[in-house]
Amino acid sequence: MNGTAGLASVVLGSMMKDLRTSKDPKVTQAMVADQVGVTTSAYFKWESGLRRITPEHLERICESLNCKDWRRRSMMSLLSGTMSDFRLGQQPRISSEDVEFIESLSFPALYRSLPDFDIIYSNQACISAFPMFTPAPLNEAHRANLIERMITDPRSPRVFVNWSQVAHRMVYLKRLWSSGTSAAHHERIMRACRSEAAFEYMWRTIPGPDVHGNNRIAVRDPVTGEVRNRTVRCLISNSRTGSADIIAAPTVRSTEALEPSSIGS
């Protein structure tokens, strides 16, 4: 990957390919390139994550392929510059200040590695609300993985009232990010998740706008059984090593559907 691209370009390329092939499997890169007015080579590099696309060209592609607004917003968020410094192949480390910050939040939040979706650290509010997202002990060979825990931990469907929708969206996002994951890590997660019958369908299909276009989750308290509405929010971490973000789930009282905040959500 050259210096003009990065992790965001890899993910964006995966989304562009999904957009093209989901419209019609017979639509080729050359066809879209011709409609947009660029060479097939340039389009290939964008879709492969080898070159950073411009917002203008991405707008033309979205218009050419009749891209839904929720998906266009997700792709445009990757060009905002917030992910430009993310680096592949480095495991993020968090400092005591990072821990202090996330523990100061009154709602569930965790640090997630990118593109692997490993759980680096969860605050106490997160462990109480989502016990399956407890990080693995430091002496474990592998970190706990957000997708694996969501799919395979029996507590997940009990805690997430709308588990199938939330899990489908998470699996779809992981598929987009998988281009930057090591083959060994990817296969380990896939092997574990295939124990759940619904996983293959989630992996192969794109969730509709009613699923992907809404960050609302209904969460059942593991102890009391009380159900609360929460909204998932993705916050960019200032990690200087590796790539990480913060996934947070504050309580919301509004009953209206919420707009998607970012691709990482």
Provide structural commentary:
The strands form 2 sheets. The chain has a 4-stranded antiparallel β-sheet. A two-stranded antiparallel sheet has the order 3-4. It has 13 helices and 6 strands. The chain starts with 6 loop residues before the first helix and ends in a 17-residue tail after the last strand. A hairpin with a 6-residue loop joins strand 3 (216-220) and strand 4. It is of the alpha+beta class and 265 residues long. It folds into 2 domains: 7-77, 434 Repressor (Amino-terminal Domain) (Orthogonal Bundle); 96-248. The chain has helices at residues 7-23, 29-36, 40-47, 55-64, 69-77, 96-104, 124-129, 146-152, 155-159, 163-177, 183-193, 199-204, 209-212; strands at 109-113, 119-122, 216-220, 227-231, 233-236, 244-248.
Radius of gyration: 18 Å
Strand content: 5-15%
Count of spatially separate domains = 2
Distance between the termini: 25 Å
Mean pLDDT comes to 85
Number of strands: 6
Report low-confidence residues grouped into runs of 5 or more.
Answer: 257-265
As a percent range, the share of helical residues equals 40-55%
The shape, in one word, is globular
Q: Which class of secondary structure composition applies to the elements?
A: alpha+beta
Number of helices: 13
Strand neighbour order, sheet with most strands:
2-1-6-5
Could you describe the largest sheet, including whether it forms a barrel?
4 strands, antiparallel
Reading the helices and strands in chain order gives: HHHHHHEEHHHHHHHEEEE
